[in-house]
Amino acid sequence: MAQSPVDISTLRDLVASTDMAFVQELIEAFLEDGREQIAAMRQSLASGDVLVFQRAAHSLKSSSASIGALEFSELAKELEMLAKQANLPAAPEKLEQIASTFPTVEQALQAFQHGS
Amino acid sequence: MDRRHAAESGRLLVVDDNKVNRLLLGRGLEQHGHSVEFAENGLQALEMLRKGGFDLVLLDIMMPELDGYQVLEQLTTEPDLRDIPVIMTSANDELDSVVRCIEMGAEDFLVKPPNPVLLKARIGASLEKKRLRDQQRQLIRRFATPEVAEELLANGFELGGKFVDASAMFSDIRGFTSIAESQSPTDTIELLNTYYTLMFDAISGQGGTVNQMVGDGLMAIFGAPVPHTDHPLRAVRAALEMVELVQLFNQGQSAQGKAPIQIGIGIASGRVIAGFTGTQSRATYTCVGDTVNLAARLEAHTKVLGHPILIDENTWQGLGGEIPATEQEAAQLRGKSAAVRVFAVPLPTASPEPQGPR
Question: Which of B96, B101, B131, B259 is the most exposed place for a label (fewest CB within 10 A)?
């Protein structure tokens, strides 16, 4: 892995402008939301509901960017684009990519929570 | 004005389906001293807004149930909600959507996650604008009828004096002083209140605005601040209705053994200087100028001619024959060097049953 899945300086800035307890809460919210949105994307892909798929990708894009998961956010953005273009056939591969990236983001966030 | 008002705190609603965004926005706003509530979708947001009390909304665009566009659209249709400023919160790659929202009435936008300095500045500016708008709204409510106020608030108007083409009306009760002396003070005030209620109804029913009440007299203006090109017609229609309402009122008076009242109305049309005057606590829409003076003189002249409604030449022309008026002898009015053409508006042939010889 060339790059950390989470940009630590984004998290440090957040802690500096708020406090650690708040950032913990934010991370918990992101992890819970991330699991839900990935499940929602799988489900909507199966049922062909483009709008729900797009909304889930959009939501993940912005929340992951907020906590510094930049690469993950980029993948979510690509998924959102596919949905916008109604190009769902191209989505499963990318969806599996984002689903497998999620645990690495989770680990990095947990390392940050316990490490600082 | 004190610019420090911009730092005032407000009650804000954050609408976003994503919890991370809600937490981040809420935290930033609370740090600036605002109280923050949250809605997870557009439907919930509207329900909360309808309960009232919010100063500003931060609105996400893409949401389940009702999205940001639908919320904006709904806000503009509800009079109680359409003045609440809305700031769109968006991702940095959806600026085209933001443009659409601003065209739909949103006031500003913020890119998520928001930069704290921008967040503070944009919220502060929006709250300050809302405060000024609320102040203006209160000012309007103080002098205008609810209908006129609504129309003004919806269509906008200019503060500051300007020339407008309008019809000015003066009306008062004949021999009011002797009526007041012949009855109890309670009866007199009750009489005045009933009288004013009736006159206001007739005037605002024709889109006019009452801008002065002194004792038993009142002044009204048609064609401003709400523009109506047919203001002479509206003023004369209102005058006819006023006289008719007084006749009805008199039937009630005589049934109670009380004295009937008579009113005199003068109307003149033309250029007037109009604008808002007053102080912070009391404001009024005022019209001044020759046209206004002429209306006052015509009202006084009704006593001379014994006719309840007198109008000037401009008003008569403005009627375009739609309401008949008969020319009277030209009058030498105070403040006028030349004699002035005067027209009387006859009352529509009243009730079918004859009133008996006068």
Answer: B96
